[in-house]
Amino acid sequence: MTKTGRRKSERSIRGKLNSPGRPPVWQRENLCRFWRSVAAGHSSEVSAIKAGVSVPVGHRWFRSSGGMPPTHLSPSVTALTRRSLTFSEREEIALECARGTGIRTIARKLSRSPSTISREIRRNSATRGGDFDYHAITAQWHADRAARRPKPSKLACNSALREYVQDRLSGLIATPDGIAFDGPVVVWKGRSAVHRQSRRWSSAWSPEQIAQRLKVDFPEDTTMRISHEAIYQALYIQGRGALKRELSACLRSGRALRLPRERARSRGRPFLADAPMISDRPAEVGDRAVPGHWEGDLILGLGSSAIGTLVERTTRFTMLLHLPRMEGYGKGDVPKNGPALAGHGAEAVRDAIAETIMELPVELRRSLTWDQGAEMAQHAQLQIETGLDIYFCDPQSPWQRGSNENTNGLLRQNFPKGTDLSRHGTNELRAVAHALNTRPRKTLDWQTSAEALDQLIKKDITESVATTG
Length: 469
What we know:
Elements: H1 8-11, H2 28-39, H3 44-51, H4 55-64, H5 87-99, H6 103-110, H7 114-124, H8 136-147, H9 154-157, H10 159-170, E1 173-174, E2 180-181, H11 207-217, H12 228-236, H13 283-286, E3 293-300, E4 306-312, E5 318-322, H14 346-357, E6 367-370, H15 379-386, E7 389-392, H16 402-411, H17 426-437, E8 440-441, E9 447-448, H18 449-468
Parallel strand pairs: 3-6, 6-7
Antiparallel strand pairs: 1-2, 3-4, 4-5, 8-9
């Protein structure tokens, strides 16, 4: 009588598996080498070759991770401890098993516990043939699959949080009266924003602004919390599924993949002679302690179109100057020594600044810092009309107006280079400025610029009433 016992594969502690496919040809070490090479500044092609995989595999790794390494493969992550078997150790186990070496002998050779080797063979051997066939690649594959701890993302589980994030990323911009503007029609093609072409208009809060503002808007609701990195991963990493990939067009960079930023240097030409320089400004302007000190500049577009920008240094409150083209622009010859018909000549800029800045109380009209551009040739007349003290930056030194340069970069999301800026009317400029002024700012402890300016105005009113009383 034959004895019917269970096969060894049925006695193994690993449950029966449906076939998940074939093991990959690469290992964790290949991935780590690939992302270390990317972090060093190499392209995905060069990094793939350094990692020992094909170039198409390198491209696939880069795009599926959104241009950034997974958290557990980041070059800054602590290396694996000796607690886990490495691929080289599994190769040694496979060789010794093929030779018929005993468990305890293999354990002594690898300086491991015999139970570790025995458990490794039982768990990660191939059992399709009814016995334990140990192969290093298959064993590493099973170990990697068992180590996964997948869980749904917070945005996928929390619909209220997902709607909040989407609205702050892609919500329509509107005037203070609630008049919404769609902006240019832009079709997302799965690639980064094209230089000097129209871009999608939206609220465009950064992930960090969204993450920090949640603490202000929902101080008692701990379910309404998310890190800015989780938002980036939901946008860029395939398989996260919570946010549409096309929402990456609402980010300031407009990149379809996360890439190291390139710094561009802007150069200018000195124009004004014997003008008050930034070194002549009082100390109160530099430390941002006193409100009412402004920085200004022009952002230029197609056909010499322009929009003026004014940024208050303390609150970062922004006002935009409408500079329409003058009558006769593009018709016939331009008269010599006549006005700049493009709309941003010295006289037009002077009038636009005076008209806009005079809407503010006198306490918020202290000084204006500008670069050395021809549009400020009538600065002396502007100073008489507004009472502003006007100072100019050093040549080729845009960083001396850091708040304004940063704001101009934010505005380029709505007014890209190479587009006609004259097509935007006053109400549209007000809507864009309002959207910018109602974003939470890290430098203001996540207050908005409008809230900070409103507090300053109320404080001045209170102090003036107390003084007169």
